[in-house]
Amino acid sequence: MSTPGEMGTEAWPLWEVFVRANRGLSHVHVGSLHAPDPDMAVRNARDLYTRRNEGVSIWVVPAEAITTSDPDAKGAFFESPAGKNYRHAVYYTKSEGVKHL
Amino acid sequence: MFPRGDQRLEDDRAPTGVGTANTQESTMTSPADLSVVEREPSPEEAQFDDLIAADSRIEPRDWMPDAYRKTLIRQISQHAHSEIIGMQPESNWITRAPSLKRKAILMAKVQDEAGHGLYLYSAAQTLGITRDEMMDQLIEGRARYSSIFNYPTPTWADMGAIGWLVDGAAICNQVPLCRASYGPYGRAMVRICKEESFHQRQGFEILLELMQGSDAQKRMAQDAVDRWYWPALQMFGPPDDQSPNSAQSMAWNIKRFSNDELRQRFVGMLVPQAEVMGVTLPDPNLRWNEERQAYDMSEIDWTEFEEVLAGRGPANAERIRRRREAHEEGAWVREAAAEYARKQAERRLAASGAVA
């Protein structure tokens, strides 16, 4: 079985693991692991990433299913917000000293 | 803009074509060819140098010099192997731990070591080496691991001494590695350090309890400390003037303090702890030097270190043999799990086909 996006020589596919620390919080990426199928991936994730009550819920996602932005286009791709500091509250200084603004 | 397939998670995956695409770029790191230092660095090199200079982090899909990549693969895989081999001297005592509580603690600790090995293997994989390659290197005796795990654990007090001295030295080494310039390595170390502090405390507690016990128990604790003290100090590696790779690792922000600095810091922490416990550290020349504001200590016997590192330690062959056995005897489990997954996937496919 090959791991898409990898060298094809890994025995088991790669899974990215996301853990929700508590109700009310998002699942956060904590790391990755290898497992043959989704059930084993969840069990391995429990043993590997939640040995000390780190979570109340786990997601595992096949690494191959994740689409990322192109790392070489870093600058260009994220250029749009640059120079647009009027999107932030601190840009507006004339209201300084006025309460509840 | 959103490439699929070959692109991996920014966070954790290695670039494709590792070790081939980058070879030409990395000549800058070859000390033999001084002329290349003069040439303009490529944009990738410049970006790498800037990130290091800014004490920022390098991530898997960033360009990096081949030598940086190789150094990290070596260091992280050795570190992973150490965690995995390090399970053995302690698992030796799981069946004979003196109480149910101690047994549960020891099992939790050994399970942690397995977890630490896995975090680190994952980090190494982001640099373009496979888990299988690393495992082969280990069981074929081609990879190194910390020489400390080649010492036997004949008494229960060894569990205490390993926790207090070996895990203590490891923490001292590892805390600065949380700030290592390679992102996945630093993140793995943060997780490991959080868990490691329980290991050291439980070791201290085992020795402390023995030191408050019978004369025979006190002797057993002192004997374990006598046997583990020097090997633990050797864990920091050779003295600074004999550690050729240290300077480069420090320039790359992988290593933050020199071997001797960390060793000195560790001894400084041990002395008051030994006093609390009532054990004697087995170095007659160990004393505070007011002028240097550091501890004077005896010369370390590096010939022993070299011997153990070269594979001639008390338990080298045994450790590799057991690791190989576990790997080979577990092969059917891995194959069965892969086959089960294949069949389940087939069934899911057939079922979805039937619905459509």
Automatic annotation (TrEMBL), chain A:
Superkingdom of the organism of origin: Bacteria
Gene3D superfamilies: Phenylacetic acid degradation B
Pfam family, one: PaaB
InterPro entries assigned: PaaB, PaaB_sf
NCBIfam families in UniProt: PA_CoA_Oxy2
Record-given protein name: 1,2-phenylacetyl-CoA epoxidase subunit B
Protein's organism: Agromyces salentinus
Source lineage: Bacteria, Bacillati, Actinomycetota, Actinomycetes, Micrococcales
From TrEMBL, chain B:
UniProt cross-references to InterPro entries, sorted A to Z: Aromatic_CoA_ox/epox (IPR052703), Ferritin-like (IPR012347), Ferritin-like_SF (IPR009078), PaaA (IPR011881), PaaA_PaaC (IPR007814)
Species of the source: Agromyces salentinus
Gene3D superfamilies to which the protein is assigned, alphabetical: 1.20.1260.10
Polar residues compositional bias, start-end: 19-32
Biased composition (Basic and acidic residues): 1-14
Region ranges (Disordered): 1-44
NCBIfam families named in the record: PA_CoA_Oxy1
Name of the molecule in the record: 1,2-phenylacetyl-CoA epoxidase subunit A
